[in-house]
Write a structure and sequence with these properties.
Helix content: 10-25%
Distance between the termini: 55 Å
Strand content: 35-45%
CATH topology of the domain at 65-273: Pectate Lyase C-like
Number of strands: 33
CATH superfamily of the domain at 65-273: Single-stranded right-handed beta-helix, Pectin lyase-like
Number of helices: 7
Radius of gyration: 22 Å
Structural class: mainly beta
Shape: globular
């Protein structure tokens, strides 16, 4: 892959924001206002649906990042690839030199490079991993301080830095056939057992509209940090590398635009090791990837409850195609459950599922609000799943409800599953029915329970066969 060379230096990037140095006014500019803003938003009717674009043309609408031609090699900067010496000082030195020059490519040669802390990318940088190169992060959480602006399960806060992080960077890339190893199994499993007090406190802060500047979780707290996160970035290319052993979610784009991910291999064995989560992001292409997860392989999100309403940024114009997906604990492809900012214009094409709990799962609850609409799933195949297609508005609510999300305009066409416990389920609730769900040319060879449907309007089946029997939707009402 040859990256387009910028004829002019890029503008200097904004530095990552750290909690001690940002005023409350700065935070309100970056992450929105307080309680008054989100309480008003939660009751506003959704705007009319925008015209449905041809997402097949999305690849042509995503320009390659503009990376200047200059380059540096990590081994020429004094770092050692013996797996024991810390290569981070040399790597950071190289990134700083390239940034001062206006950008360029930092090449990581073959070998195991130990990193005692996070990498922060800035605009105009391509981190390129040669085949045989391994970036292995040290699993010592104090090394990932001071805190940076991030999201944890859809709520904004300041937390330990992800292993590889970029904030408000543009024209950036991670490429090459090397490996990014988060080395995070211990943090992922042990911190999950200790996270409940911090998680509940953060969720309460989001619900109460506590300013983000005051949501600082760092030393002494146990909210896990991710492997790769881009926050507020654009023109992002992720290509050819392998990502392993994340302490939390593996790849997470927050409030990003024009993101292309292709030929990635992402493996996360543990619960909450989602492979790729685009959150409040637009124009995202995920293609030709292999994902294996202990949780969702791909989960499209847009913020949690009041925090999602406050920000009001949907995930939209997302194309997922030609991927192979395996999940031991959740869905191959999911929308939600943190989807309060809305999700629209999603297209899934020609993906293959081995084993998963759900093939496709759109999940929300009566706390969430938000609208999910204009979803097209075509050419999806699965070997063995618990639920082939599942839509639910009754997923793990924690409070009193009263903010029903709306799911509408879903089309599933040309799908095939060999074996499922349930073929198709649409689990609405009274007063929050699904609307305009269409299934066409959908086949499930064997299912213990063909369908489970409640509170669904405008449900249409055309050539839907489960256990060899053509299915009909239940009568309305």
């Amino acid at each position: 892959m040859i990256l387009h060379v910028s004829p002019m230096p890029l503008p200097p990037p904004a530095p990552p924001p750290f909690a001690p140095r940002l005023s409350r006014r700065r935070f309100l500019g970056v992450v929105g206002g307080g309680a008054a803003g989100f309480l008003a938003t939660s009751s506003v009717a959704a705007p009319p649906a925008a015209p449905w674009p041809d997402l097949a043309s999305l690849p042509e609408r995503l320009p390659p990042p503009r990376i200047p031609s200059r380059q540096l090699r990590l081994d020429a900067l004094g770092a050692s690839a013996n797996g024991t010496a810390d290569a981070l000082p040399a790597l950071r030195k190289g990134l700083q030199e390239l940034a001062r020059a206006g950008g360029g490519r930092l090449i990581v040669p073959p070998g195991t490079w130990r990193l005692d802390g996070p990498i922060h990318l800035t605009s105009g940088i391509n981190l390129h991993l040669d085949e045989g190169a391994v970036l292995r992060f040290t699993p010592n959480p104090p090394l990932y301080l001071p805190p940076v602006l991030t999201r944890f399960e859809g709520t904004e806060l300041f937390n330990h830095s992800p292993c590889l992080y970029a904030y408000q960077a543009h024209h950036i890339a991670i490429t090459g056939r090397g490996i990014i190893d988060g080395n995070g199994a211990k943090v992922c499993t042990e911190w999950r057992q200790q996270q409940r007090p911090d998680r509940d406190r953060l969720r309460a802060m989001g619900a109460e509209g506590v300013p983000v500047a005051q949501r600082v979780f760092g030393a002494g707290h146990f909210l896990r940090y991710g492997l790769i996160q881009f926050f507020g970035c654009s023109q992002v290319l992720l290509e050819d590398f392998t990502a392993l052993n994340s302490p939390f979610w593996c790849i997470h784009t927050v409030a990003c635009s024009q993101v292309r991910a292709r030929r990635l291999r992402v493996e996360g064995d543990h619960l909450n090791n989602d492979c790729f989560d685009p959150e409040s992001s637009s124009e995202v292409l995920i293609e030709d990837c292999f994902f294996r997860s202990g949780d969702d392989c791909i989960a499209i999100k847009s913020g949690r409850d009041q925090d999602g309403w406050r920000l009001g940024r949907p995930s939209e114009d997302i194309l997922i195609r030609n991927c192979e997906l395996h999940s031991t604990g959740a869905a191959a492809i999911a929308i939600g459950s943190e989807m309060s900012g809305g999700v629209r214009r999603v297209r899934v094409e020609n993906c293959r599922i081995g084993r998963a709990r759900q093939g496709f799962n759109c999940k929300g609850n009566l706390d969430r609000g938000g609208v999910v609409e204009q979803v097209r799933v075509r050419g999806l195949t699965a070997e063995s799943v618990d639920e082939f297609i599942q839509l639910t508005l009754d997923y793990q609510g924690l409070r009193v409800g009263g903010h029903a999300p709306r799911f509408r305009d879903f089309e599933f066409r040309g799908l095939h599953c060999r074996e499922a416990v349930t073929g198709f389920s649409a689990l609405g609730v009274a007063g929050a029915e699904f609307a305009d769900l269409r299934l066409e040319d959908v086949t499930v060879d064997r299912a213990r329970q063909p369908t489970v449907i409640r509170h669904a309007r405008s449900l249409r089946f055309d050539r839907v066969r489960i256990n060899g029997t053509e299915m009909r939707p239940p009568p309305a009402g």
